[in-house]
Amino acid sequence: MAGLIEYKCPCCGGAISFDSSLQKMKCPYCDTEFEMETLQSYDAELNNQKPDELNWNAAGAGTEWQPGETDGMRVYVCKSCGGEIVGDANMAATSCPFCGNPVVIAGNFSGMLKPDLVIPFKLDKEAAKNSFMQHLEGKRLLPKVFKDENHIDEIKGIYVPFWVFDADADADMRYRATRVRAWRDRDYQYTETSYYSVTRAGSLGFAAVPVDGSVKMADDLMESIEPFDISEAVDFQTAYLAGYLADKYDVTAEDSIERANQRIKQSTEQAFASTVTGYASVVPEASSIRLTNATTKYALYPVWLLNTTWEGKQYTFAMNGQTGKFVGDLPVDNKAKRKWFWLLAAIGAAITFGIGALIALL
Question: Which range among 17-26, 150-159, 197-206 has the greatest average pLDDT?
């Protein structure tokens, strides 16, 4: 039995059919008419649409440790959140950079890949403290104890594991766009809407797209302190870990690919969409992205972390140890919030009363 072929209107998406009186295809919903040749070329374009090809060879990220390289390195485990960090044998008892609880030595370091690259810390703890205090300035609803007892001595420098993705992206995009023209005569107002199928094709290069390799580090927190300047990265040496902690990755390169693809796809679509201008409306219809020269590296990025608790809720602050960019949510003192609410309400009432009295005098 023959199948039923249905054509969609490129303008409104409704089903169109052949109108024998016009000898054209016509949409009964928006009354747009199409020449058969136009629809054939449009149909051929749809049939040639390529699928996304976002493939990586993540197996090459990181290298094996050489004999002797991990001598003196120890793994510390937090019994509260399960976080594992790496330090040297001289590190005294410390607290977890993720939740602030004490950590214990688990044993010698082993079983992980050696990083390819490391971005050394450029900013010290004092800079992190100053950035934290500046972050608190002008926050009228911040609990007073948060300023007086802010645990700034617990700021810790930690190398966070990142999988770094490089690739070239070849893309084809299609959009449905409109232009609107309006005019009027003595009797009527007219509006003409023209519909366009807009295509874009080209290539973009992506270098060092980072995805953090730690479950304990929230993606949005790490992305908020970007960018890191990968041009300052150097070949990894254990000497860079001296005086700092290093988080053990618990997300593999393969498991990070989906996030890398999301970031590349989103950036590519935004870059191409920015070139479609001069239309009243633009709606994306299809996209096809193919990656070439896709490679992955394992890198350590410098981050200053502070975790503190207020009324049972944990607050995490992070500073880019290379650029100084500082982010973090702050608690709100509900008593101060109510005080400011009533104060603003009183001011508003006074202004309203004053305006009312002035009108009465007039």
Answer: 197-206
Tell how strand 84-88 and strand 33-34 pair up: unpaired
Q: Please list the alpha-helical segments (H only) found in 72-154.
A: 125-136, 144-148
- Which range is least confidently modeled, 85-94, 124-133, 288-297? 85-94
Query: How would you class 129 by CB atoms within 10 Å of its CB: exposed for 0-12, middle for 13-18, buried for 19 or more?
Result: middle
Q: Do 358 and 299 have their domain in common?
A: no
Residue 3: pLDDT band (50, 70, 90) is very low
Q: What is the pTM of this model?
A: 0.70
Number of domains comprising the chain: 3
136: containing domain: 117-170+199-331
Q: Are residues 240 and 263 in the same domain?
A: yes
Give the N- to C-terminal CA distance of the chain in Å, as an integer: 87
Nearest to 52 by CA among 269, 208, 206, 272: 269
CB atoms within 10 A of CB 37: 8
Q: Are residues 204 and 353 in the same domain?
A: no
Q: What is d(CA 303, CA 328) in angstroms, rounded to the nearest whole number?
A: 13
CA 256 – CA 214 distance, rounded (Å)? 10
Domain presence at residue 179: no
Question: The tokens of 246 are what?
Answer: 């290093």
Tens digits of residue pLDDT in 34-52: 776 666 666 666 556 667 7
Do 280 and 345 lie in one domain? The reply is no
217 and 298: one domain? yes
Q: Would 87 be classed as within a structural domain? A: no
pLDDT at residue 26 is higher than 70: yes
> Nearest 5°: CA angle at 316, between 314 and 317?
150
Q: Does any domain span residue 188?
A: no
Residue 59 lies in a domain: no
Instruction: Give the tens place of pLDDT for each residue, 48-78.
Output: 666 777 776 666 677 776 676 666 667 777 7
Same domain, 343 and 208: no
List Cβ neighbours of 100 (8 Å cut-off, separation of 6 or more): 151, 154, 307, 308, 309, 314
